[in-house]
Structure formats: structure tokens, C-alpha cells
């Protein structure tokens, strides 16, 4: 009798496990549906010292590149763009010390990458790139 009860309990447990594990998955995450429209903001600020001669190149609304020279800090540029999976945005910046610059990319108001570059000398330059790729 105990053997039959044990087998019956095991059968019921197996059936319950199968029913629960075979349940239909929830709908895909709506934030990962492409193409989608996003807001992108690029920011550069002084991180230290008195950097000068700042040049910035960034991904623009069409997916191409835009270049700015002799940028005055703080710098901010907002764009709207339609993206697909594996699309990317970048912002590269180059300047001369002494001092440093912090570059940031925000997507839909959320910080997605941040890097700082600097130089201790007015005869040395610094370069950095911030990047985001949609998954």
C-alpha cells in the first residue's frame, strides 16, 4: 500500500511539474522590439583642470557622423533616431590638457556609457570614445 501511495504521489508531482514548466512564456520584452524610436543625448563636461581645443564627433539622426571643433564646455546635444537591433551610437572626443573631459551617452534619459580622458600637460592631447549598441 505504501508503495502505491508513493508511486501515485510521484506521478502527481511529475504531472504538476510538467504542467508548470510547459506554461506558455510571457510576451517578449516590449523594450526589445525593433525598429524603435529613441532619444539620445550626448554630454561632455570638464572633469578636471582647463582642457582646451575640444573636438567632438558623434552619431547623428541619420546614423552618419557629425563633427564639431573648438567646442566650449559644457556640451550637450539631443537627437531622436529610429534604431534596429545591433545599431550603435558613438561619441569620440579629443582635447588638450592640462585637464580632462568626461563624455556620456544617455538613451531615453538613462546613462548607458561614460568615460573620462585627460592629460597633465598643455603639450599633450587626450582622446576617448563612448559607445552604445542596441541588443
Q: How would you describe this structure to a colleague?
A:
By secondary structure, this protein is mostly beta strands. It has 1 helix and 8 strands; from the N terminus they run αββββββββ. It has one domain: Immunoglobulin-like (Sandwich), CATH 2.60.40. 15% of the residues lie in helices and 56% in strands. A 4-stranded antiparallel sheet has the order 4-1-6-7, with no helix packed on it. It has a 4-stranded antiparallel sheet with strand order 3-2-5-8, with no helix packed on it. Strand 2 and strand 3 form a beta hairpin. The longest helix is centred in the N-terminal third of the chain and has 20 residues. The model has no long low-confidence stretch (mean pLDDT 86).
